[in-house]
Queue: 2 jobs
Job 1
Amino acid sequence: GQNIDQPTEMTATEGAIVQINCTYQTSGFNGLFWYQQHAGEAPTFLSYNVLDGLEEKGRFSSFLSRSKGYSYLLLKELQMKDSASYLCAVRLTSGTYKYIFGTGTRLKVLA
Amino acid sequence: DTEVTQTPKHLVMGMTNKKSLKCEQHMGHRAMYWYKQKAKKPPELMFVYSYEKLSINESVPSRFSPECPNSSLLNLHLHALQPEDSALYLCASSQGAFGSSYNEQFFGPGTRLTVL
């Protein structure tokens, strides 16, 4: 079976840094994606990792360790608008389009 | 145009009704997806079309019937649904190039479906 786990909820303060973890055990691996989803809205793409290491994109960074089946999303200088759900998703194999989403993490940013 | 559109935004239907959800993209993407999302849960993959052919059906009940009339359009036909089918139905698209290393999905705003 496919297993992708994230913490259910996290709370952080405006201006702080938060790390959202994602661990996966899947039958294949061809990349890990992070999406942000505000309540009642569509998920929007944040970042992508396929090789080990850190990818940085402005206030957002994402890290991948394939040997450990582990990724994290780092959000810096938190803003109130970052309050949302964060979803990691694994693409199972190259050339196919099967993506499995993690359980999702609801982040609440407090003033 | 980097948008995926979905209609209708909201749909209420009875268990004996037949209705359709529509999805459209004009980004030249060749892969299109249907997901079902229940409240406070992640999206669950239902169907994938690749180059207008059905490539993945995640054992979805036959009361859901997908259709891809052309590379820009994706429909989901609904018939004899159950109350537990009430959910947000999300459409997504991605480039679909074989072996592409990126291929992030672009999601539409979804159709919120209520089955009475």
Job 2
Amino acid sequence: GESVGLHLPTLSVQEGDNSIINCAYSNSASDYFIWYKQESGKGPQFIIDIRSNMDKRQGQRVTVLLNKTVKHLSLQIAATQPGDSAVYFCAENSGYSTLTFGKGTMLLVSP
Amino acid sequence: DTAVSQTPKYLVTQMGNDKSIKCEQNLGHDTMYWYKQDSKKFLKIMFSYNNKELIINETVPNRFSPKSPDKAHLNLHINSLELGDSAVYFCASSQDPGRQETQYFGPGTRLLVL
């Protein structure tokens, strides 16, 4: 959902649950998408990417799903751990050398 | 063995001052970037350099001047600092400037203008 005031959309889960973070992207011409994880006080860290000729890609405990029809991207994290707590951003490659970032979702994992 | 490094990590300064932020990458990448992250965590591209040449310059005040002495370094100089410049500035790099290139980020420089 949209961020309200200074607050990011937040997803709170229990340790061990599966987490799903959603992202709507804006440019139907975008052909490359990345999920980044940003922990407090650190820079964005690459998690997983997907090209537009795919609709699903799996990594270690993470899966990215791409639905080009509705311009929607999701990140699934299996067996969420406290160390997964961070802000997650989707980014789309909307032009030459340009990444456009989404607004971010805060994931809070409680033990 | 830090891939993308920035200095300083924190920068507190008065309005009107001039300051620089440095960035270095040891990944052997050809392209480097500067991003600004505001208080709402929104990340926006400012500049992109490929092999020391400017290739992207988003709508950024000309008080901001990037300089790339070589392809492993991209520094950001800011003149006449304003309160609204307070933000976290991230440097990033990628192998090439083209599409479908993953960008790798530095740890950020937290700038506070008083």
